[in-house]
Amino acid sequence: MNTRASPVLQSQPLGPLWPTLDPFLFCAHHDDAYPAGNRAMGVQAVALEGRQMGSDFSRKDGFSMYHGEHVPGFPGHPHRGFETVTLVRKGLIDHADSLGAAARFGGGDVQWVTAGAGIMHSEMFPLLNTDAPNPLELFQIWLNLPARHKMVRPHFTMLWNERIPRLEHADAAGLRTTVTVVAGALDGAGAPLPPPPESWAAQADADVAIWTLRMEPGAHWTLPAARGQGTRRMLYWFVGEGLSIAGEPQGGHAALEVAADRALELVNTGGDTVECLLLQGRPIGEPVVQYGPFVMNTQQEIMQAMQDFRRTQFGGWPWDASDPVHGSAPRRFARHPGSAQDEVPQA
């Protein structure tokens, strides 16, 4: 008789915000079917009727405006004490921040921002197509910072799709699994990209991994055991009809905490593609006190963050609008703080 414990330690449904494990704080999956845009790269007026403008999370007609008034997205807002990792699967994001950095990225690109002592940034979703829909899909993940790094200098990083390591695995039947490695090391995927220097992911023993998995129908792939002691991992199954983990069929899309200390065979048992997001890491294990966009260790530090923001605006806002967009050309680029030159994607 097989007495080994189930590889799935807990299962939770996927709602608007996905449950996370320390060191992660937040995971949102935005999947919006934006219509054709107007000449200002915004939503045409007829599609805005009946929405609570400025705070629209309704998914009316398949999309939300979030805090955007004309262009959907998140106009300038502050953060302190953690990092944002934004993975764009479809569409484009226009970034601007109080450091003076700007970017337009999408189609597999990842932006990683260390808020540290404080940053303001905007994340707008320009609708460049005026005669066709503008679908947008992304993950935004918040990764905590340990107490010793919560007040580090803010840092802006772009990870271009062309440089992100990938593992292309074919099983015995030739069926393929693709693993995209945003953070962490995976044998066969090539050298990992370095995370920001003060990130928890940059600590040698933190064992942070951010991977996306895409499995063809019928494909088998073995998720290797985590490399570190005490690592926890969450596997989010969000696309596909059937998934088996170490021989156990799963009942439906869910956030699945799985055993990290052993290898687990994943099998796509359905008739269509399966996709998953994996977040793992060794817990920071410190108190978490959050107030909106500020994540610290004590209530007193939260009060200080609020006072600092009211006093300094975390460096001020160097843009003419709270929701800047970067023109109608679909090019991807990043302009780093203090630079007059644009960085563009390179393999």
UniProtKB/TrEMBL annotation:
Gene Ontology molecular functions: metal ion binding
Region (Disordered): 320-347
Keyword annotations from UniProtKB, A to Z: Iron, Metal-binding
Required cofactor(s): Fe cation
Matching InterPro entries: Pirin, Pirin_C_dom, Pirin_N_dom, RmlC-like_jellyroll, RmlC_Cupin_sf
Annotated residues for binding of Fe cation: 77, 79, 121, 123
Gene3D superfamilies: Jelly Rolls
Positions of the Pirin C-terminal domain: 211-315
Residue span(s) of domain Pirin N-terminal: 49-143
Protein name in UniProt: Pirin
